[in-house]
Amino acid sequence: MSLPLVTTVERRHRLGLRHRLAPSARAETVAEAADSVVALHATDAATVFLSARARLAEGGPDAIERALYEDVSLVRLLSMRNTLFAVSAELAPHVDSSTARAIAAKERRSLLKHLDEDGQGLDAAWLAGAEAAALDALDARGPSTGSQLSAAVPALRQKITISRGKKYETEQGVATRVIRLLAADGRIRRDRPRGSWTSSQYRWVHTEPWPAVPAAEARAEIARRWLHAYGPATEADLKWWTGWTLTDVRKALAVVGPDQVRLEDGNTALVSPGDTGPEPEPEPWAALLPGLDPTGMGWADRGFHLDPAHRSALFDYAGNIGPTVWWNGEIVGGWAQRSDGEIVWRLLGSPGRAAEQAITAEAARLAAWVGEARITSRFRTPLERELVA
Q1: Which end of the chain has fewer CB atoms at under 10 Å, N or C?
Q2: Which pLDDT tens digit goes with each residue over 39-74?
Q3: What domains can be seen in the chain, in order of their start residue?
């Protein structure tokens, strides 16, 4: 018996509906928007807001700020691919156990190695004392920036020498490393930043670590959700997206028990159990997604929604996608915001009059939502640079 066929058009239908980009599929809450793509990239502060905006039925930046800093229904975690993501509080324990714990352990080993090599007698006991002092300062002061914590905790003003005796020897303060470690361990979290929602100068608050979930169980839950959002996909796609070992990927998929399907290019891929039928066609939709948006970054192979000829214009040298324009599940151009606030975009093809009208309307919706805020992508791409020049 031949495998069920999932066409390229059907894969694009899934993006409109499952990634909540078609207007009729948009989410009611920020947590729902994040869950629809498993996690929102959070390396760039503005990305979280713009990715959520594209998937929400209503609500401005204040709704996303409430989710992050008041309801705490959305939280930032250093996790997949050693990258900062924002995930729903419901999913956070699984992300923590599946991925973040291993990163935290690696971060601790690395810092202790640097402390030992520095030769000042700083060790695990000293680090534990510095961490405890930082937490005490947060309890006493309330939400604080890294600079404020350093001013309050003498140990955080300690400097160490990295790669002593080598030509790339450098002196480094420990404050950033200690704060990063506390965050990776789940003992502090990012709170409301100084400045607007586009700022990355976060304040920190003391919090309790996430409940422990068996790592294998957590990885299976992540794989199950990812496969629903991103399938058809391959184990190579999941390995790339998570940063797990191939062994862990295969064990997690074995628990999920995915079905195999055929793709139009002749390759096979995986979908959730029973998820082999055609996806309903959503209404026509346009989207302006930010750099690093999950819909553009969800697979190692993105050929079904991106013409390879357009890749060089839309990605930076490190493989990070920039701001993109979408029409019915396909990337058709890029966009940027100029210094005067104008949203500008360029098509990399000819998707037709209906597409141009819908994209124009979506650009106006984005401009109204952003208001007076100014967005500069952290990962500059050739097209984005041209548009703002």
Answers
A1: N
A2: 999 999 999 999 999 999 999 999 999 999 999 999
A3: 101-206 (1.10.10)
Q: Note if the pTM is more than 0.90.
A: yes
pLDDT (tens digit per residue) in 274-330:
999 988 999 999 999 999 999 999 999 899 999 999 999 999 999 999 999 999 999
For residue 18, report the phi and psi dihedrals to the nearest 5 degrees: -75, -30
Q: Which residues 6+ apart lie within 8 Å of 199 measured at CB? A: 45, 193
From residue 321, give the alpha-carbon distance in Å to each of 11, 282, 295, 377, 386.
20, 25, 10, 10, 15
Which is nearest to 218 in space by CA: 380, 123, 101?
101
Report the distance separating Cα 375 and Cα 262, nearest Å. Answer: 40
User: Per DSSP, which regions of 53-174 are E strands?
Assistant: 74-78, 84-88, 144-145, 159-162, 170-173
Cα 227 to Cα 216: distance, rounded to the nearest angstrom: 16
Cβ 171 vs Cβ 159: under 8 Å: yes
335's tokens: 């966009």
Rounded Cα–Cα distance for residues 173 and 145 (Å): 15
> Where do the H-state alpha helices sit in 160-305?
175-184, 215-230, 235-242, 246-256, 294-297
Residue 287 is predicted with a pLDDT of 98
pLDDT at 377: 80
Q: Which of 3, 16, 2 is nearest to 279 (CA)?
A: 16
Instruction: Give the C-alpha distances (Å, rounded to integers) separating 292 from 144, 284, 344, 379.
Output: 28, 23, 18, 9
Query: How far is Cα 135 from Cα 153, in angstroms, rounded to an integer?
Result: 10
Residues linked to residue 144 through DSSP beta bridges, in sequence order: 204
